[in-house]
Structures are given as structure tokens and as C-alpha cells.
Design brief:
Two copies of one chain form a homodimer. Chain A contains four helices and six strands; from the N terminus they run ααβααβββββ. The first copy, chain A, has helices spanning 3-10, 17-29, 35-41, 47-59; strands at 33-34, 63-66, 74-77, 93-96, 102-104, 120-131. In chain A, a hairpin with a 7-residue loop joins β2 and β3 (74-77). The longest helix of chain A has 13 residues, at 17-29. The N and C termini of chain A lie far apart (47 Å). The interface between A and B is medium-sized, with 34 and 34 residues. The structure holds manganese (II) ion (2 copies) and zinc ion (2 copies). The structure holds a DNA duplex (30 and 30 nucleotides).
DNA sequence: CAATTCATGCAATGGTATTGCATTGTTAGC
DNA sequence: GCTAACAATGCAATACCATTGCATGAATTG
């Protein structure tokens, strides 16, 4: 069994052509992708099916969502060991205001945050806007 | 001059009935509010005018936006000294998954984040989901 | 007061997110 | 293998939310 199918199976996601296609693309590109880009890439495929594939992948812990607050929701592969309904993505997301690129800062660990008494967190997301490495100077 | 007008003037926002109304409401409620809620509150007012009031307030450093990724964009008063085009809100936002409330955790300071070499940040936002104080137990 | 700039109201549009439903494909019990 | 149950897909429709255009009215400035 190839890597694509292995991941799908391990995450309890039924193996279908569409899902193989999308997961393969994420693995190959290792990029942050949104519905529109994927629709462009897979022109023959139905937009809604891609949409539901993304939702399923997110739900099952294969990808995680990134909201930049400007355009549509983006997604990237979970590198850590995420499970169904339980993501443990402890890295911030960077949105370059110059070139528009969005990336996972995998190397940066989210610093521990002390919540006020009585609060408990199940998800913490950090979004950073600024200039990326390529757009500096 | 009253407090409302003083703030508007200090932030270089022309004083109008709509703006007085919205700012007064934010000050009174001290809450996180979205366009829909404000439209409900000011039923006689035009939705678009409220919309543009929020955009203006944000631009001028009177309120800051909060994206929970679920519903519409919410807004809250800037407590720190924000200026036009330059917000310095260094606190996370909490979204309770039980009661749905959204609040500014003013007491929590955003921990310093070390970016990878070559990156520079102009805005950092942290969004936390979980159970709020009221919904614990 | 005249010229200009700004705010408002209403209509229209753009874009993204989400659902309904009929059809097709897949799985699992018999 | 056959059939019932279940899941995925494709297409259409809808629901929201965000944003813009334009005509009108109000305020400001010199
Ligand atoms: Mn990421
Ligand atoms: Mn806040
Ligand atoms: Zn860049
Ligand atoms: Zn709560």
C-alpha cells in the first residue's frame, strides 16, 4: 500500500479517487491551499466534493484550517500527530502582507499561555501578519 | 464635552449621531459586538451605515476586530492606546464553545514570540477556544 | 456663501460557506 | 454472490457575510 492510502486508512477515511488526489497534492506541494486553488488544480472535479473532502480531512486530523481573515479558509497538512476531532497544532501561522503567502511556522512553538482562573482551552491559534523572509529589505 | 465626543475627536473621527450611538453602546456594554447585534440594537439605523461606522472606528484605533472563524467579525473597544492604522492589542481572544461568548482576555499578555530569521511581524493575534468561567464544571 | 469634503441610505453585487437531494459507488450481513 | 445499509459524489440552490456604487444630504472651510 502506498503512502497516500496508508494515511487515509490510518485516519479512518475511506479511500476514494478524490481523496487520494487531494491528499497527494498536499503532500507533493507541502503548501497552504484553499478551496479556490484546489478547484483550479483539479478543474475536472466538482467544487463541492473538494469542499467536503477538506472538511472530512480536517475532521479526521489530516489537515488543519488557517484563517487569515482576508480570503477564504486555507488548509495545511498536520505534521504532528492529530487525531479525529483533536488537533494539536502548536505552531503559529504567518501571513505575508507583501506577497500574500501563508505558511505554517512549524519551527516556532506556541508559547504556553496562562489563562485566567476558571477558563480552559481546547484550541489555541496564533496568526501573525508581517513580512516574510522573501519580502524583507 | 462628554466622553463620547471627546474620544471621537481625539481619534480624528467626525462626530455624528450614528457614531455617537455606536461608541456609546460599546462603552456601556463593554462587550464584544458584531454587525448583526448592532443592527438588532439600532433597528432604525441603516445596516450599511453601522458597517461603515465599524470600519471607520477600526481604522482610527477606537475598536479592534476579532475573528472567531465561525460567525461574522466581532469588535471590541481598544483599551490600550491605539492610533490610526496602528493597533497595539496585546491580548488573546477567547471563544467559549459552550455558551458562544467571545471576550477579550485583557488580563493575559500575549507571550513574546520569536520568529524565524528574516521574518518581521506587524500584527499578532491569538484566538483561544474552550470553556469560559461561567461554563465550567 | 460657494466649493468641497464627508456621511448616509438604499440598492446591488461579490464571494465564500453550507445544505438538499437524487444518483452512484462501496461495504457488510446473510 | 445478493441485498440492504451506508457513504461519497455531482449538481443545484441557498444562506450569509462583506463590500461597492451612486445619489442625496450635512458639515466644514476659506
Ligand atoms: Mn499550520
Ligand atoms: Mn480584544
Ligand atoms: Zn512575502
Ligand atoms: Zn461559556
Amino acid at each position: 500500500m502506498n503512502r497516500i492510502d496508508a494515511i487515509l486508512q490510518q485516519k479512518s477515511v475511506r479511500i476514494t479517487p478524490m481523496r487520494q488526489l487531494v491528499l497527494k497534492h498536499f503532500l507533493q506541494e507541502d503548501a497552504v491551499l484553499g478551496l479556490n486553488e484546489l478547484e483550479e488544480t483539479f478543474q475536472k472535479s466538482d467544487r463541492i466534493t473538494i469542499y467536503r473532502t477538506l472538511k472530512t480531512f480536517e475532521e479526521k486530523g489530516i489537515i488543519h484550517s488557517i484563517q487569515n481573515g482576508v480570503s477564504e479558509v486555507k488548509y495545511a497538512l498536520c505534521k504532528e500527530h492529530c487525531e479525529e476531532q483533536h488537533h494539536i497544532d502548536r505552531h503559529p501561522h504567518f501571513h505575508c502582507l507583501v506577497c500574500g503567502s501563508i505558511e505554517c511556522l512549524e519551527s516556532v512553538l506556541l508559547p504556553p499561555t496562562i489563562l485566567p482562573q476558571g477558563y480552559s482551552a481546547s484550541e489555541i491559534k496564533m496568526n501573525i501578519k508581517g513580512r516574510c523572509k522573501k519580502c524583507q529589505g
